[in-house]
Design a protein that fits this description.
Elements lengths: L2 H21 L11 H17 L4 E5 L6 E6 L7 E7 L19 E3 L8 E3 L7 H16 L6 E7 L7 H9 L8 E4 L11 E6 L1 E10 L5 E2 L10 H10 L22 H8 L5 H8 L12 H4 L5 E9 L9 E2 L2 E10 L5 H14 L6 E10 L2 E2 L5 H14 L4 E4 L6 H9 L3 E3 L15 E3 H22 L1
Parallel strand pairs: 3-6, 3-7, 7-17, 8-16
Antiparallel strand pairs: 1-2, 2-6, 4-5, 5-18, 8-15, 9-13, 9-14, 10-12, 11-13
The chain binds ligand BES and manganese (II) ion (2 copies).
Length: 462
């Protein structure tokens, strides 16, 4: 057994206990009722970073939740790895669908994780994955295996758009100076097919409000004679896709990068079973843009989805009413070269233009961000690839993900360095859903693989 493997084996109970303690704090950034818990989580992360060997750790205040910044600089002439992660989590709702309370972590086996998985909100996204880096640092500092400098930047607002982190990065170029950025906040294909995420989608998130009459009306007395905002809103939303599931907003596809036949063929080589996919989701068929495969639809193609829709009477029984207002929250996942602010503008003008004169519409942009792709020939990618070869015995497959970490594009723009996305989660981990979990095996494998990234990156940088 090499030393990192034995170190992990020897300390795994402690590694699990510490993660469980972190998961017990409900650091829900979206809900201000949890403010103190979010702040407490930042303090815990600071303490753990200090224990793991950082020389200095600061809680950097922002207009929102603080950023925990730590570093260990061993030699200015050696390369510097900047680790990014987030300590905030998504709200756990709907709570009643959890088999155990979201902030009372339990370890239990599943079909995919016979050795156990940790069930809790944030287990995978991102406390578990972020904490792998803290433990990898502990290994490297205590065993004299840290080959280069390391900086940590762990934020508390990723799940709400990283607005204040953007400002922090812009104002702290010197402090954050690095040679590569390392993140574990994505997934891999499967436990025996390691992969490195080479792309993330961008995002534009908007809220729409459709207003009809100035008050809720009797649907008998007025029905048929005035516009029903819910009828109109659903019709407008339906018109945003055509019969081939293309998005109908003029200009939406203008800058979308088309992959070559070769690139698509390369993508199609990644192991994927449509049957297993359907079975895992209990669906009879998949659905999406014509002429694209499932893996293409959820990674290299842009999308538009309603995330929530409400209005009118939804309580028990029946109430005959035409609501005055109807609302929806809509997200668009974007691909590289689509500018999220331009897309937001295009959506707004189109949505206003298609509204019948019988209603008024209001479009309110929320947050957004650019997509990201990273090449496979960088030193960082090569180092990650070698690290996986060491611990999985296989060359990882490069794979573009459908998810978004909007700050990654900004990192490259501001700090001029590439981000390497070494995710150890699985699609079945149910991030953002009830019963989120993270395999114990995945957690420990991450801790084992990360120090090898540092080793190879430092060697390749010479
Ligand atoms: N860690 C996820 C993103 C992710 C997960 C990327 C899995 C690839 C694979 C991140 O915490 C997240 O949830 N991002 C949000 C966007 C954010 C602006 C709220 C998302 O993708 O919806
Ligand atoms: Mn995340
Ligand atoms: Mn998330």
């Amino acid at each position: 057994m090499n030393s990192i493997t034995s170190y992990v084996e020897q300390h795994k109970e402690k590694f699990l206990e510490e993660l469980i303690a972190l998961l017990k704090v409900p650091s829900i950034s979206a809900d201000s009722a949890y403010k103190n818990d979010v702040l407490l989580t930042a303090d815990i992360v600071r303490d753990r970073l200090l224990e793991a060997g950082c020389d200095a750790v600061e809680i950097c205040e922002t207009e929102g939740y603080p950023i925990v910044y730590g570093e260990k600089i061993i030699d200015k002439n050696l390369p510097t790895v900047l680790v990014y992660g987030h300590y905030d989590v998504q709200p756990p709702d709907p709570i009643n669908l959890w088999d155990s309370p979201p902030f009372e972590p339990v370890i239990k086996p599943t079909e995919l994780h016979p050795e156990g998985a940790i069930f809790a909100r944030g287990a995978c996204d991102d406390k578990g994955q972020m904490y792998m880096h803290v433990k990898a640092l502990e290994y490297m500092t205590t065993q004299g295996e840290l080959p280069c400098n390391v900086k940590f930047m762990i934020e508390g607002e990723e799940e709400v758009g990283s607005v204040n982190l953007g400002k922090f990065v812009k104002e702290n170029h010197e402090k954050l100076k690095n040679d590569v950025i390392l993140i574990s906040d994505t997934g891999m294909i499967s436990k025996d097919t390691p992969s490195i995420t080479t792309g993330l989608r961008g995002l534009s998130y908007v809220e729409v409000e459709v207003t009809g009459p100035n008050r809720d009306l009797h649907s008998g007395l007025y029905g048929g004679a005035v516009a029903n905002p819910i009828n109109i809103l659903t019709k407008m939303i339906a018109s945003l896709h055509d019969e081939n599931n293309h998005i109908t907003i003029p200009g939406f596809y203008d800058n979308v990068e088309e992959l070559s036949t070769e690139e698509r063929a390369e993508m199609a080589k990644a192991p994927f079973s449509l049957d297993d996919y359907k079975k895992a989701l209990d669906i009879n068929d998949v659905y999406g843009e014509k002429d694209f495969s499932t893996n293409e639809r959820n990674s290299i193609r842009p999308t538009l989805d309603v995330n929530g829709i409400w209005g009118g009477y939804t309580g028990e029984g029946a109430k005959t009413v035409i609501a005055s207002k109807a609302y929806a929250k809509i997200s668009m996942r974007l691909v590289p070269n689509q500018d999220w602010q331009r897309i937001t503008e295009l959506f707004k003008s189109h949505f206003e233009a298609i509204a019948p004169s019988a209603v008024t519409v209001k479009v309110t942009p929320h947050h957004g961000g650019q997509g990201y792709v990273t090449p496979t020939n960088s030193i960082g990618y090569q180092a990650a690839s070698l690290a996986y070869q060491d611990t999985f015995g296989k060359t990882p497959i490069p794979q573009r993900s459908g998810g978004s970490i909007p700050i990654v594009a900004l990192f490259e723009e501001e700090l001029k360095s590439k981000t390497i996305l070494m995710g150890f989660g699985l699609d079945s981990d149910a991030i953002h859903s009830p019963n989120e979990h993270f395999g114990v095996w995945n957690y420990l494998k991450g801790i084992e693989t990360i120090p090898l990234f540092y080793k190879h990156f430092t060697a390749l940088s010479k």
